[in-house]
Amino acid sequence: MRQIVLDTETTGLDPALGHRIVEVAGVELRNRQVSSRDFHRYLNPGRASDPGALEVHGLTEDFLREQPTFRDIVADFLDFVADAELIIHNAPFDVAFLDRELALLDLPPLSTHVAGVTDTLRLAKQLHPGKRNSLDALCERYGVDNTARTLHGALLDARLLADVYLAMTRGQDSLIIDLGDTRSTVGQVPLQMGTLDLVVLPASDVELVAHALYLNDLDQASGNKCVWKHLTV
Predict the structure, then answer these.
(1) What would the pLDDT profile of 163-207 be if each residue is shown by its tens digit?
(2) Catalytic positions, written as ranges
C-alpha cells in the first residue's frame, strides 16, 4: 500500500481570487512505514503573498522569484503522487489549490491522478469531537515532537502529519509476528496452529471509527464497489 502525506503553502486562502501555491511537499508511506522518498519544491507564484500568509510561511517574494513555476515541476509532482492515496490535513484546501494549478495548465484534476484522498482533519473530528484538531494540537495529543515548527513549512508539516496519521490509525498496522529465521533447516518441526492459545482482542472504538472511514473512502474511490463495506452478517 502506497500513501503520500501531502502539504502545501500558499499566497492566500482562496485560489478563485488568484492565489497560488508557493511550496508543495510529500512524504511517502509504504505499508504504513515512512520510506526514504519525499518530494519538496518551492514555487514562484508570480504574485505577492497576502500579509497573513507571509506571516505563516515566511517565504518572501524575493526568495520565491528565484524558484521554478508549477509548470516546471508538474511532471515530477504527478509522477510522485501517481496512483497513491493522499493523506492531507484539511484536504479540501490543498486539493482546491492543486486543482487550480492543474487547470491553469489544461490538465485534469488531482483526483484523476491518485487513488483517493484521506482528510486527517475529518478523521480527527470523528475521533475527538469538540476538541482542537489543528496539526499542533494533534502533535501534542499523540506525543509527536513539533518543537521545530516555528513557521509553517510544507515538508516539515508533511513529516509531522505522517507521524500523527500513523498514531491516529495505529490499529491498521500490519499484523506481523517476528518468528526469527524462517529459512528451512534440517529437522525443523512444522508449526501446529492447533497447539496455539490465541487471544482475540476486540477492536477499540478509535479503531472501529478509523476502519469505517477507510471503508467509506475506499467505497467512494471504487464507485460503490467495496465488497467488505456491503457485506451483511
Answers:
(1) 999 999 987 654 444 444 444 434 444 445 455 566 667 777 777
(2) 152
Q: In whole angstroms, give the CA distance from residue 70 to residue 21.
A: 8
Residue 28: helix, strand or coil by DSSP? strand
Last residue of some domain: 170, 186, 213? 170
Q: Is the pLDDT of residue 64 over 60?
A: yes
The grid coordinates listed for 175 are 499484523
CATH code assigned at 84: 3.30.420.10
Burial environment of residue 227 by CB neighbours within 10 A (0 to 12, 13 to 18, 19 or more)? exposed
Contacts of 15 (CB under 8 A, 6+ apart): 96, 97, 99, 100
Would you give the DSSP letter of residue 222?
T
Pairing state between β 21-30 and 116-119: unpaired
Asked whether residue 111 falls in the same domain as residue 207, the answer is no
Q: State whether 85 and 160 are in the same domain.
A: yes
What residues make up the domain containing 48?
Answer: 2-170
DSSP string for residues in 80-129 = HHTTPEEEETTHHHHHHHHHHHHHHTT---GGGTSSEEEEHHHHHHHHST
Q: What is the rounded (10 degree) CA torsion for 156, 157, 160, 162?
A: -110
Q: Are strands 2-10 and 21-30 parallel, antiparallel or unpaired?
A: antiparallel
Give the total number of structural domains in the chain: 2
Instruction: Note the pTM of the prediction, 2 decimals.
Output: 0.73
Shared domain for 19 and 76, answered yes or no, is yes
